[in-house]
Amino acid sequence: MTDSITPLDDIAFSFQDRLAQVLAEGRQRSRGGSPQYGQLWESLTRMATGGKLIRPRLLMDAHRSLGGGDQAAAVDAACAMQLLHIALVIHDDVIDNDTVRRGEANISGEFASDAMRRSAGRREAQAWGNATALLGGDLMLTLAHSLLARLDVDDAKRRAILDIFDDTVFQSAAGEHSDVWLSLHLEEARSQEVLEMAGQKTAVYSFQAPLLIAAVLAGANTALAEELAAIAVQIGVVYQLRDDVLGLFGDEQVTGKSNFSDLREGKETLLIAFARSDPSWADVQHLFGDRMLSTADGHRLRKVVEESGALVFVESIISERCEGLYRFIRESTLPPALRHQLIELTSECNRRTA
Amino acid sequence: MTDSITPLDDIAFSFQDRLAQVLAEGRQRSRGGSPQYGQLWESLTRMATGGKLIRPRLLMDAHRSLGGGDQAAAVDAACAMQLLHIALVIHDDVIDNDTVRRGEANISGEFASDAMRRSAGRREAQAWGNATALLGGDLMLTLAHSLLARLDVDDAKRRAILDIFDDTVFQSAAGEHSDVWLSLHLEEARSQEVLEMAGQKTAVYSFQAPLLIAAVLAGANTALAEELAAIAVQIGVVYQLRDDVLGLFGDEQVTGKSNFSDLREGKETLLIAFARSDPSWADVQHLFGDRMLSTADGHRLRKVVEESGALVFVESIISERCEGLYRFIRESTLPPALRHQLIELTSECNRRTA
């Protein structure tokens, strides 16, 4: 029985190198199996090593700013954050039945197309794509757990990090579950609920977990960890509100998704919660959540949202939240370098176009 | 931040008590969230604590027979085996689009029915059921990892156990992936491939992992671990071949599933691989994998399988494998009590009716 994961000896490794290494080990082990399983590991590698790597970067930067010296452990924890992100994104796509992400075929889409090229029926091919993605998510989740379980730090720190990670999976699943539930529209969603759901689904794993794990690794005190947790939740809200605005009013070429897909899904956002209170909503309500929504009706629905004042309202909330955050971060006890990073991060979450 | 999982202090705890405890902690934490998330944890608890608990029992028994003295660690590892089983079963049902297991609604079925009672459309309700099950599987997989990452044993043992567990998830996913691929029928399945897939999908996690983890905990030597691994794979083959026979010729009242569901799925088994070589297969081939297969055609297809001699052939293979296993176990260097247990287990896997 060989080690599943080679321990990290060279502390000069960047997290990108380490990520590439643990994924290469997975690909290597998959070579004994079917060509399809090997292909899955290739796709997982492409997904996990691409993108902006926001979460692992945040963990690495925060760890350094907090004066942490355990570079090897920070690298492995940063990789675990990225792998968890990929696992959640993949499973989110399965849940939403999406075959495209950021303008390219995702795992479901890629494997379904391959099967159809080999003359499988559409329905069977889609099932195959979804099955492959579901298993791919399980593999990425397992790899994230594996890295953290093997962290070479003292017992108390490892347990504290495992607690944060488990809690993160628990919250992310709860947030995703609420998201799907709200999109069924069996009960009316209140704005507060929509914001909480978004925080649970995205902010906890994207911002809170990387910051809290960095704090544990750097040996930061409890007060500081609590400040970081509060900031993380607020950054998450800004991130999510911007996401909702981009989903409806973004540049499709940049976001890589249709401006009508959230409307077709019936996604409950603060924009929609606001628009619902406008009298003109009654005329278009039946279009919201219609999976067959035409482009003309999409424009009509979006116009009602915009003219209800929802866009102006949500933009004002975003500005308010950002201002509050900048103040909170400036007045915090965090080290100056970290305050600077978090202000930058907030600003990026606000200004992003994709 | 409180501990996600209370450490196990009382070593007199049975694994059933411990399983109930870690699941109760999950339910407790879910109370702050949506009623639906709480309901998911209730369903997960019912699933995880029910059934025959074959895997945790095997681990506990093997650990004792091998003279292992670390009862607390064995209990936690046994729970992890059961939780992994539940995670895999849940995700397998999502992949197969099943809503019933052993005659009762599974998580997808339960949540879909609830949503339909609350007047959701069938399609939306099914998507909700599948999303809930997918997340439930993620939660069970995470809980299994959590228990093992916190095992209070020396570092070398914990790492050895983590390696076994990670390898188990890797193999199970590979087996499941092959299973779905073979059921697409884009290439002809060879008997050897079908048997290997079944071993990977079921035997590794059901028999090999519990036995190998028990061996590590009990400090068994490598030669003994290798004997156990070889025996586990063989037991797995017997288990799977019996499964295939029951799937087609079992008592539906006892198995809790239709004798035609494997045929409708187009499940590649040794029975089918044998029947394919019979001239009469050509007449019924078009029925195999037909999701709309009628009862009359189901009987017709099953008759061809039986009359091809496939049933007699597979039964003879099962007998042969059992005899070989009994001999191998008797001649092994395992302690007598463990030899006895493994002979019993083999016999149960062969004689079972569900």
Automatic annotation (TrEMBL), chains A, B:
Gene3D superfamilies reported for this sequence: Farnesyl Diphosphate Synthase
- Asked if the keyword Mitochondrion belongs to this entry, the reply reads no
Cofactor(s) demanded: Mg(2+)
The family database entries (InterPro entries) matched by this protein are listed as:
Isoprenoid_synthase_dom_sf (IPR008949), Polyprenyl_synt (IPR000092), Polyprenyl_synt_CS (IPR033749)
**Keywords in alphabetical order:** Magnesium, Metal-binding, Transferase
Q: Reply yes or no: does the keyword Nuclease apply.
A: no
Gene Ontology molecular function terms on file? metal ion binding; prenyltransferase activity
A GO term (biological process) for this protein?
isoprenoid biosynthetic process
Family per record: Belongs to the FPP/GGPP synthase family.
UniProt protein name: Polyprenyl synthetase family protein
Species this chain originates from: Brevibacterium aurantiacum
